[in-house]
Amino acid sequence: MKENSLNKLKSKFTLKEDKNTGEYHIFDSFEDAYFWDKSLCRSMERVNSVNNIFFCKSEEEAIELCSKRDRKICTVCMGFMYVK
Description:
Strand content: 25-35%
Number of helices: 3
């Protein structure tokens, strides 16, 4: 996939639980086609997750769902959500 074609795709977000710490991290993807291997904060790798809390939600849906969970979500990942 060409780099400039990624800019045309809509971001989707997934919340994953870190199997080592129990903390939740947010991962960015593009329309179910291209997934980043690290969380938005870059401190968790996708392979270290135990489950998805939600999968491929829009930015608005992801922010709403994260605000309802309110605990154990990486504050750096949340900060990136609001900056986007």
